Amino acid sequence: MASSKKTVLITGANRGIGRETARELATRGFRVIVAARGEDKAAEAAREIATETGGEVEPLVLDVADDASIQSAARAFGERHESLDVLVNNAGIFPEGESSILEVDRQAFFHTLTTNTLGPLLVARFFRPFLEKATEGGRIINLSSGLGQLEDMEGDAPTYSISKTALNAVTRQLAAKLKDKGIVVNSVCPGWVRTEMGGESAPRSIEQGADTVVWLAAEAPSSVTGQFLRDREPIPW
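Below the sequence we write its predicted structure tokens.
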């Protein structure tokens, strides 16, 4: 008999919001796949989260900036699991030292877009067959940022901001195309969170940053799709 336990895959789950999301969902009884670029990092995080929560946690090597790595991860996942209930596209980068869109390096810009925008799209594409088999409908959650809001965008963090704006567009496109497959897709702004990326001066705790992601994974109604959310409420694009 197939297990009734839901499965969630979280990219970049070895640290920060991804790790906290993995911990909280493991506590809620999810089977958690901790995906990270390095085998050692994925294995160590999975082991620690399993020990802390008593949950079922597995490591998976996945580099969202590498097409071959994404395909290899999907094959490895398929050897162990038939379906995937939730995909959390959490992995991303925040380039340091950018002062102006007029000065950004072409290759650095391309790398940011590859990691923050194209990576989540390709992960969704290659794991889609497993999401389509989710018994209660699949869920994709993309970690975005308020810096990607066009409504009040200024000149800060240019390549990061643009990559997250584009990720929001990917979210809308995926939500429209996957609706008939029973898969819902949403973007989340976690706010400025005290993580390695956010820094110690950030006003929000890591638990606050992960809250909406966990809610979308475990509790939100399936009617919520194609949205950009912060603190469980829609915000302007």
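The longest strand covers residues 31-36.
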